[in-house]
Design goal:
Blueprint (H helix, E strand, L loop, with lengths): L3 H12 L5 H15 L6 H4 L2 E2 H8 L9 E2 L7 E6 L6 E5 L12 E4 L8 E4 L2 H9 L11 H10 L26 E4 L7 E4 L7 H4 L10 H16 L3 H15 L5 H14 L3 H12 L12 H5 L23 E2 L10
Antiparallel strand pairs: 1-3, 2-9, 3-4, 4-5, 5-6, 7-8
Helix pairs in contact: 1-2, 2-4, 8-9, 8-10, 9-10, 10-11
């Protein structure tokens, strides 16, 4: 049995931000169910809880924790996936420097083009929304464990609370005093101090994003972002980069966006997000074993699959549209 404080500490170190205790509780309970023989969380959650699967497998370095699609927004930190069309769930963190105690839970499905969908504005409502997906589902082969988990955490999933799945909901963050929020097509937007936006943000960030991603057009857009950075407006630069990358949908150009993208985050005081860009740049989109950015992960990686769970669980995530990304920092002797 793992203590909740150990799991919460492991999650926080792995993800790089303070993980809410309620999410750590869910991870602990699901891990307990798996140790009882209910090896596949899909049977009672309706989706796979990635941290529990990793801890159940061996809890050691060698597997990347975050499953990402090439278009997963940088600010989204994945913790689960449905196994369908690359759909995955996670926390959305606009500005890590605000040091919030909780974050919105969002869904991203790469097969759609409308960006992030809000599941819930915080952990409790988000988990209730995700757990509501399985209510009445025929594939719920261990629904009694679903009820047990909900009871233990005082969660109340209902069919009505799964309405987010059919009704798109935008993520509108709380805006601190002196800050500004500008939406973007990927559903994230840019939240930052007002002075980090250009006084003519709308005009300066306007680009013909529908153009073909030919080299000359891309360089024109990148130059606009570079000018915004040079003038001290990283929020405007971030908006340009994010909108261009989303609209052009050409992952082969990520390495050209990355230096300015990372610099925009660094200038905004967001090293966690800058580091995420840098890690993606070092880890190619193709599914490759042992290409983790941490040496320890590369040394102990398994040769058979990038993400391989316990053989008895029957749970393997090998969708080639999803790529592992950030090598986890694992706690020892959990």
């Amino acid at each position: 049995m793992r203590f909740i404080t150990e799991i919460q500490a492991w999650l926080t170190e792995t993800y790089g931000f303070p993980v809410p205790r309620l999410f750590a509780e869910v991870t602990r309970i699901v891990l307990t169910f798996m140790e009882e023989g209910y090896h596949d969380p899909f049977d009672y959650l309706g989706w796979e809880l990635t941290p529990a699967l990793h801890l159940f497998s061996n809890g050691q370095a060698g597997h990347d924790l975050f499953a990402r699609h090439p278009w997963t927004p940088i600010e989204m930190f994945s913790f689960g996936w449905s196994g369908t069309d690359g759909e995955h769930y996670g926390y959305l963190i606009h500005a890590p420097e605000l040091k919030q105690s909780d974050y919105p839970i969002v869904e991203f499905e790469p097969m759609n083009d409308f960006g992030l969908n809000l599941v819930g504005p915080d952990t409790r409502s988000g988990l209730e929304g995700l757990l509501s997906l399985i209510v009445g589902a025929e594939y719920a082969t261990a629904l009694h464990k679903h009820h047990e988990l909900a009871f233990m955490l005082d969660l109340h999933p209902t069919a009505q609370k799964a309405d987010w799945y059919q009704n798109r909901r935008a993520v509108i963050p709380a805006i601190p005093d002196g800050w500004r929020y500008e939406p973007t097509s990927d559903g994230v937007g840019v939240l930052a101090p007002a002075h980090t936006f250009s006084p003519n943000h709308e005009a300066d960030s306007a680009c013909d994003y529908e153009i073909q991603a030919v080299e000359s057009d891309l360089q024109t857009i990148l130059r606009k972002a570079e000018i915004a950075l040079e003038q001290g407006y990283p929020a405007t630069a971030l908006a340009i980069i994010r909108e261009s990358y989303w609209q052009q949908y050409d992952v082969d150009n990520f390495n050209q966006y990355a230096p300015l993208w990372s610099q925009a985050y660094a200038d905004l005081g967001r090293p966690l997000l800058a580091d995420t860009v840098d890690r993606i740049l070092k880890n190619p989109w193709a599914m490759q074993q042992g290409e983790d950015s941490s040496a320890s992960a590369a040394e102990s990686s398994d040769e058979s699959s990038v993400v391989e769970f316990d053989e008895t669980s029957g749970s393997e995530f090998q969708d080639e549209t999803i790529v592992p990304m950030i090598a986890a920092s694992w706690l020892e002797d959990i």
